[in-house]
Every structure is written in C-alpha cells, then in structure tokens.
Amino acid sequence: MLSTALGALIGSAIDGADGDDSTADGAIIGGAVALVARALVPVVVTYAVGWAVLKGLDAAKDAAFGEGK
C-alpha cells in the first residue's frame, strides 16, 4: 500500500512539473506503475536466480565430466 501511494506521489510530482494540466493522471499512472513493479520485480529476480543456478550447474558438470561437445 505504501509503495502504491509513494508511486502516486512521485508520478503526480513529475506530471505537475510541466504545469499544463492537473496532476491526477500522473498520480494514476504512478500508482499503476508501482503496482506492476511490485508484482513484476519478484518474478524477474526469481528468473535471474534460477538462470544463474542453471548456468552454475552446467559449468560444474563441465568441470567434473569434461566438455560435452
């Protein structure tokens, strides 16, 4: 909840810097970005850790049994 509110505040401040229109649309976009980032960041980190583990296992296998090709 706090990250969504913080994203809305940051988006509102960025949108309000130009002074053309209200800052409500920037707050909505900032809140949406915070929600998406909060859902997407754990997926990306999990994928990266899994990829690193698979690469490490592949290198360990090649070191133990020799190059495959």
What does this structure look like?
The chain is mainly alpha-helical. The protein has one domain (1-64). It has helices spanning 2-16, 24-65. The chain is rod-shaped and about 65 Å long. It starts with a helix and ends with a helix. The mean pLDDT is 85.
Average pLDDT level: 85
The tally of strands reads: 0
The helix/strand class is: mainly alpha
Shape: rod-shaped
Helical content class: over 70%
Q: What is the chain-wise order of helices and strands?
A: HH
Largest sheet: none
The low-confidence parts are none
Helix segment count?
A: 2
Report the oligomer.
single chain
Strand content: under 5%
How many structural domains can be distinguished in the coordinates? 1
Radius of gyration: 21 Å
Quote the distance from N terminus to C terminus: 52 Å
